[in-house]
Specification:
262 residues; alpha+beta; four-stranded antiparallel β-sheet; two-stranded antiparallel ribbon; globular
């Protein structure tokens, strides 16, 4: 099973009151955490608990560990009575989104919002779907509604920034949105990468390099921030440094085509 939440926290799995796994994780709907138990539960049901850093219980449910591989048409964990609850509609929307059934996902998220207009999870996913569809104004409107409910969410600020970046007249708003991800380390790294790309696009390579260096220090060699550093070093004519870094990356990833071109 995969676990999703919009809050950082701890995931604990138990069988008959005994812990069989615990994970401190950075959770979000777009970054599910796969559960791998310390021992095989067999046919026993597993209790999964998600708690926030302040020990607030976000979710507490009992699930069958072994799914029927012949019937994966519906999302796991939902009984018939749960499928039309707010949680059920949202979970079904996620499942439809994973299967690329986007009209169905959009409909399920909207049904959840019809039940509760302040349900930030389906509201956020609707905004992300509009972003992916290229409907940037609509994405911004939905994500700004979500931020009025959860103003500190780094994930929502990040996706709002992506939508704003595609609106030519609102680049400064996009930059502000990416900076607002800073309370969320995962999305701040993504946001700083976007800030680097914006700076590079306007020709401010020193600022771009500062962003890419900051991001690359927390990511694996050869990831996009490292590749972008090579490009920026070339653009500011630090050819020896660019070549040295490119060779380091290629020693680790000989098929990195962007670095090969650089």
């Amino acid at each position: 099973y995969s676990v999703r939440s919009v809050i950082d926290g701890t995931v604990t799995a138990e069988i008959d009151g005994t812990s069989v796994g615990s994970w401190d994780v950075d959770l979000s709907p777009s970054n599910p955490v796969d559960l791998a138990l310390d021992s095989d539960p067999g046919d026993a049901p597993v209790r999964v608990i998600i708690t926030s850093p302040t020990d607030h219980v976000i979710a507490d449910c009992v699930i069958p560990w072994k799914a029927d591989e012949d019937d994966l048409s519906d999302p796991p964990l939902l009984s018939d009575s749960e499928k039309d609850t707010l949680h059920g509609l949202y979970a079904r929307g996620l499942h439809a989104e994973e299967q690329n059934l986007l009209p169905e996902a959009r409909s399920l998220y909207q049904q959840a919002l019809d039940r509760d207009p302040l349900a930030v999870l389906p509201l956020t996913r609707l905004g992300i779907l509009e972003l992916k569809a290229g409907e940037y104004e609509q994405a911004v409107a939905l994500l700004e509604r979500a931020l009025r409910i959860t103003p500190m969410s780094g994930e929502i600020h990040y996706y709002r920034g992506l939508a704003l970046r595609n609106l030519e007249s609102r680049l400064s708003d996009a930059e502000d949105a990416f900076w607002r991800t800073r309370l969320d380390p995962h999305h701040f790294a993504l946001g700083r990468y976007q800030l680097g790309e914006i700076a590079a696009a306007r020709g401010d390579f020193d600022t771009a390099l500062e962003h890419f260096v900051a991001v690359s220090e927390s990511t694996a060699l050869g990831t996009p921030a490292w590749t972008a550093r090579v490009t920026v070093l070339r653009c500011i004519e630090l050819y020896n440094e660019a070549a040295e870094l490119a060779n380091r990356i290629l020693a680790n990833d000989a098929l990195n085509l962007v670095v090969i071109c650089e």
